């Protein structure tokens, strides 16, 4: 295939949202369609510097595409936060607080008020602060842990179990959140404990389970909104009412050593959801839920996930993007090292008809598939509704995507499905060292519609026809 030099524009996402996630309506499918009073000019908000990246051909010739999308930002986590764990070994170096000292019982009765009082003191304390949740079982109604805080560094050590109230009435009119950390900087949440969303009552009343019921909102178990310099690690999050962990409008995030679980039949229980977040690294985590193991949606840039075990669930997804004719932008995403087993999709990019914007600079590499439906899929005709979606001309542009060293078995005949928009074809897709067969070593197929500048490198099976 003859390649010509194409210079393609990318824009550096510049977004400044100053309104609390708690008070704004955040729609799970249209994550960036916010009140226009809180948006800066669209061309600036979703603009890219056209000189920021070299051309596609030069990248390919120099074999530096992986280096390009693995660039790290200069705005890394500060050394003080990285070394925060040392403070936990030296109690004299930090202010230590315990939720029990504020009236928490940990006996299954409501401890919401005590946690709120403990947080208020921790947030107002100067220097380094550690807030301990001992090895008991604490029941909480919806609660918001708000900043900004006076503390230089703040650690929440969860040794015990935090369980959600299963009384729907406790969630009031705004049922989108259960635990919320809002506008907090230099925050560490860890400890080896469990966060339990007690989601069964919400799943039973979901319109996806019972079609006769109206569709209503359900809470995300733990939400981090407008947080900067954030570490979340060594936790088990289970049975969320809806999504398990959501990072919204955050900067500089490390999420590692997480175990996220819910039944395969639980609706909309994404494991880790990333929206409007930049410079986030997820690693060494095991996720098995009823929806996407990881979902990355609009406004997200410089996203990396390494050593992820996924299944059951719907795979690792970018999107959905462009719902409701919205603009959506995701760029600089690397999924490096993942094992997916029995999932309904593998590595997926999904966009709605009628949207606009782009999903670009994306790399999926070093991935093992075991009996996965749609191991490699780009779906630009995504339609998650009962009625058929109408044909529309516009679409989110999918471009500069690399699939490298992906192997295993497919549960569907089509192991590779690139179903791109006929009006906005996918551009510059690379398949390198791919080997995905059906079980029993049967032949698999590839479906590649509306792809421009498709390149195959090394041994690729199945081939795009």
UniProtKB/TrEMBL annotation:
InterPro entries for this protein: Glyco_hydro_28, PbH1, Pectin_lyas_fold, Pectin_lyase_fold/virulence
Record keywords, A-Z: Cell wall, Cell wall biogenesis/degradation, Glycosidase, Hydrolase, Secreted, Signal
EC number(s) given by UniProt: 3.2.1.15
Positions annotated as active site in the UniProt record: 314
Matching Pfam families: Glyco_hydro_28
GO biological process assignments: anther dehiscence; carbohydrate metabolic process; cell wall modification involved in abscission; fruit dehiscence
Catalytic activity: (1,4-alpha-D-galacturonosyl)n+m + H2O = (1,4-alpha-D-galacturonosyl)n + (1,4-alpha-D-galacturonosyl)m
SMART domains on file: PbH1
Keyword Nucleotidyltransferase listed: no
Transmembrane segments: none
Gene Ontology MF term list: polygalacturonase activity
Signal peptide: 1-23
Xref: PANTHER family: PTHR31375
Family: Belongs to the glycosyl hydrolase 28 family.
Protein name: endo-polygalacturonase
Protein's organism: Ziziphus jujuba
